[in-house]
Amino acid sequence: MDVEIELEIPFHDVDAIRVAWHGHYAKYMEIARCKLMDKVNYSIVEMEESGYVWPVIDMRIRYAHPLIFGQKFKVRATLTEWENRLKVDYVFFDAQTNKRLTKAYTIQVAVEKTSGEMQYASPPILLQKLGVST
């Protein structure tokens, strides 16, 4: 399962040489991940309402080519793991040329909201939303 979003680098996201500051990539990934989870009807609000929060516990980014001011780019977010954790892979690419610019991933785990205990398997509600279990 995946989604693809298109964004444009605004001036307030760039440094003195008009390159997107590396920290903003997490924001772009978050936008794509939220769209992905909306697609399965398990948004951040729905996660919390189901009794779980899903903090990001690991994030890796491989910057191959910079994003620059005014550049239109796409982020493809793909859900690649869901049984024991959520792993989302991301690919950033230029909107005009389709040149791959950056690869990344995030890993989230379910934490029971009231107890604060990490779950070692994804809760049934996630599997139901994904249509992989009842």
Automatic annotation (TrEMBL):
Q: Does the keyword Hydrolase apply?
A: yes
- What CDD domains does the record point to? 4HBT (cd00586)
Q: Does the keyword Hydrolase apply?
A: yes
Q: What keywords does the record list, in alphabetical order?
A: Hydrolase
> So which residues are the signal peptide here?
none
Pfam families documented for this protein: 4HBT_2
The lineage's top-level taxon is: Bacteria
What protein family is recorded? Belongs to the 4-hydroxybenzoyl-CoA thioesterase family.
This chain belongs to the protein called Acyl-CoA thioesterase
Task: Identify the species of origin.
Answer: Marinomonas maritima
